[in-house]
TrEMBL record:
Organism: Marvinbryantia formatexigens DSM 14469
Name of protein: MATE efflux family protein
The entry's keywords: Cell membrane, Membrane, Transmembrane, Transmembrane helix
Bilayer disposition of the protein: Multi-pass membrane protein
Annotated compartments: Cell membrane
InterPro entries, alphabetized: MATE_fam, MATE_MepA_subfamily
This protein's GO CC annotations: plasma membrane
GO molecular function, one term: xenobiotic transmembrane transporter activity
Protease recorded as keyword: no
Segments crossing the lipid bilayer: 20-40, 52-69, 81-102, 108-131, 152-174, 207-230, 242-263, 283-301, 322-340, 346-368
Principal location class: membrane
Amino acid sequence: MRRKKNGTKIEYIPGDGAGLLLAAIYLLFMNPILTLFGGRVNEETFYHSREYFFYITLGVPFYMFGQAMNPIIRSDGSPKFAMISTLAGAAVNIVLDPLFIFGFHWGMMGAAVATVTGQVLTAALSIWYLCHMKAVKLSRESFGIHVSLTKRYLPLGICSFLSQISLVAAMAAINNMIQKYGAMDEIFGQAQYAQIPMAVVGIVMKFFQIVISIAVGMAAGCIPIVGYNIGAGRKDRARNLFTLLLVSEAAVGAVALIIVEFFPRQLIALFGAANESVYYTEFAVKAFRIYLCMMIFACVNKGTFIYLQSLGKALASTMLSMVREVVFGVGFALLLPVFFGLDGVLYSMPVSDVLTFLMSAAVIAYTYRELKQ
């Protein structure tokens, strides 16, 4: 964003063209994308995947706009409104899901429409706030693209993009290996059980995302504090905050580890698996206990990646993240199943987290030395 000389007006606000472009790409290449992520386990799965994918894609522009405006609202001094706008969308989604799925009998379409409705609400609240911002006055020039500004923020955005796209690559590799080696399994190679491995790993990843979201939230909350203290020359405070963050991340991971190791059946029940077969339950228990057995390292790694960004070490953060997801995540997801079959896909996650932690530990030690000078 660029401020006028009188310091009272902002002349640039990022648009939502990327969301529209991404939605168009999704719709044009729907089948190849679903195939890439293992959506062709069987015809029934592929049908429901297409149905959900189509409607959820319509909400991509609203979702991206709401997510993009959220940090802008926070930076304007209204973190509560930013939180409320996000929670409002999530609450609408939760309320409408059972209504659309069971009340209107819309099935997968109902789940997608409920999600999109929540995203539209978040985007609408963001638009309202942008028209009532404290420090920003919108003008026609606010919606233009300024090359000089683009050159400044694009490198930071590319670093974040590479980190996220590497995660997508890892997920695509895992899903494809699950589909491939699940078909070779004695049980899951049967048509009536073919969808179990993909469904179970999807549930495990949902729980993982919830835990990692907590880790990301704690680390992201440190960013403005670190920036302020580094600017004030108080590296000691930044170092102490780093210590507190690492301890907190490890604690979150430890709690998650206890849950997945001791209460996997209760977790499965939360996702409506009460009427599933015994094969479903057995594989789900094993998947939770193996796939997420290194949650402590996973949380510490994620916190380290984000903290490095707050110190201006975007390249180091991006490289660690890409090594974790592409080199280790994709590499071991392709390699380990060759020796261990379907179980090898599950082992790929903890192995990647341990090796990444060894690299992160070296970066953490170096960062401590820097902040101690």
